[in-house]
Design brief:
Rossmann fold; 5-stranded parallel β-sheet; 5 strands
């Protein structure tokens, strides 16, 4: 099991520079987990795409439904005190620290493309490229 942030989840559904890697990651490690916050973050990304007319509303709804199926039974609440402790020890947002807190709680790596998380939490956060490369060896 791995923890993924919303950028990685989104890359499966919205074509970007990390999409190919996200697909490879899912094949290598299909048990993705995340804090419940991912849903709100992903809905917000989809809302932007709909408003900019980059995707249709129906497509956004389908992507959200598929992502919820992917993450089913592997979404977690995160304790506020843990998130705030991480915030106080870093410059990351509370949103980002939810993913870090969950990774620490579950003893699983956090796979992300977020440079700030990678630099602030190198003991728990791993880039998608590094994770794939290390697993491919």
């Amino acid at each position: 099991m791995i923890i993924v942030d919303t950028n990685i989840i989104g890359a499966l559904y919205l074509s970007n520079q990390h999409s190919v890697q996200a697909e490879r990651l899912l094949l290598m490690e299909p048990l993705w987990s995340a804090p419940l916050l991912w849903r709100s973050e992903f809905r917000n990304v989809l809302a932007l795409y709909v408003r900019k007319k980059w995707i249709k509303l129906e497509d956004a709804q389908q992507m959200m439904a598929e992502a919820i199926r992917l993450m089913r039974d592997r979404e977690y609440d995160v304790a506020s005190h843990q998130v705030l402790n991480l915030v106080s020890a870093s410059t990351c947002s509370a949103y980002d620290c939810e993913f870090v807190a969950l990774a620490k709680d579950l003893g699983a790596p956090l796979i992300t493309a977020d440079k700030q998380i990678l630099s602030q939490f190198p003991q728990i956060a791993v880039s998608v490229e590094t994770f794939i490369n290390e697993r491919s060896l």
